[in-house]
Amino acid sequence: MSTHADSKPWTVPALADAKRNGQKLVMLTAYDAGFARAFDANGVDLILIGDSLGMVVQGHDSTLPVTVADMVYHTRAVSRVLQRALLVADLPFGADATPERALEASLQLLQAGAEMVKIEGAGFKLDIIRHLVEREIPVCSHLGLTPQSVLRLGGYRVQGRGDAAQQLVDDAKAVVAAGASLLVLECVPSPVAARVTAAVSAPTIGIGAGPDCDGQVLVLHDFLGLDSGHRRPKFVKDFLAEGGSVAGAVQAYADAVRAGTFPDAEHAYAS
Ligand code: KIV
């Protein structure tokens, strides 16, 4: 099986090749140059500037207060040091409320060094995804638990259970048909994430979505075992404890993702 070379920078088309070749993708969030450099140097394939920064960096209770300016600031810091990893940045809450706002925010993020923007949800977001992709802006979709929906959902809970599973599969097909090149699945039962992964050509990246996704992502602070001040989700694993150093933690995480041993049953939702 041919796989993406360790020394070669990732590109958007290479992500689909990786899925076709069965090569698992290793993703972590980063918000500053120091961690981004360490992740890039130790073989992380994709770095996400997540709007999780609102909670883990800024200390808010949700991601809702994060602004486009915040995202641009962190995207600039991270993008300066990357040699190989592909850089994805979140469109924060409200920045994708209309096609015009989404385009303006995405242009700012791409000009700051992002190579793809991430958008939560399906529904009216399908038009937004199409609007951006038609204008040469690569899009990562985010389905399952979408933290920007916290007020409507009333909390952070597993999604896609029971009858909602088919809706999730349909939404995944729709976002990929609209042009999404990558799909994050958050807090979804493993069998449902496996169905989604089999149904779409774009790689799926799981966080609390079981071992059958095409790749995995963790939030930096969770990956390092830091207390975020919030309830610790079941899927979180402290890789610093296992690896002994930041470089060792990245290697332990990357090895486990590529071998398909993370997440195991303890770090996934069976149903
Ligand atoms: O904001 C973020 O860090 C994310 C991850 C949870 C995937 O969206």
Automatic annotation (TrEMBL):
Its EC number is 2.1.2.11. Binds 1 Mg(2+) ion per subunit. The active site is at 186 (proton acceptor). It is an enzyme of class 2 (transferase). SUPFAM superfamilies: Phosphoenolpyruvate/pyruvate domain. 3-methyl-2-oxobutanoate binds at residues 51-52, 90, 118. Belongs to the PanB family. This is 3-methyl-2-oxobutanoate hydroxymethyltransferase. It comes from Stenotrophomonas capsici. The gene is panB.
